[in-house]
Amino acid sequence: DTAVSQTPKYLVTQMGNDKSIKCEQNLGHDTMYWYKQDSKKFLKIMFSYNNKELIINETVPNRFSPKSPDKAHLNLHINSLELGDSAVYFCASSRLRGITGTEQYFGPGTRLTVT
Amino acid sequence: GQQLNQSPQSMFIQEGEDVSMNCTSSSIFNTWLWYKQEPGEGPVLLIALYKAGELTSNGRLTAQFGITRKDSFLNISASIPSDVGIYFCAGALNTGNQFYFGTGTSLTVIP
Known about the structure:
heterodimer; A: 7-stranded mixed sheet; 11 strands; B: 5-stranded antiparallel sheet; globular
């Protein structure tokens, strides 16, 4: 069964366009995330939502706007795409295991190429 | 956000050798996670650690939660070609909502 899924897997588009990436998790988790992975493979947190509420908003251009219609979905909309936006974007979700700890699971990634 | 120090940055080893990597932080964590990422895929959770000193295994993989809570270690025994990938550590606090990732260790296994 798919745990965290993202669409599309690949996205090739031109500068200036607007595009969206969708994410869904069927794990019953309360918190969802968007990460950006650059060419050096660093995983950089962009946003986090807990029960549809934005809780982490790192320094990201306001061309990036997350939307969480319900706690199982977190979409990422990007306006006016730039060359530097080319990267792999990962969705993730997490749950708390009581007060003892937490686990986070990732989607397969969306490779965005801006030309 | 904080990035954890992970070493080594890359490893080239012969099939059958054991592998060790570690992750250090300036902050205390309550959770340490280890992931493997293969080319074109998302990171896959390998091992989760929740107590200082805890040692947990998953097949040939063994990870430890450092006693100081500021570090964690991952060992892979008798490496095989399919162990190739990038291994990431991640730490999290009790609030559980934010994860801090290591810089990754790229593992190449030579048959």
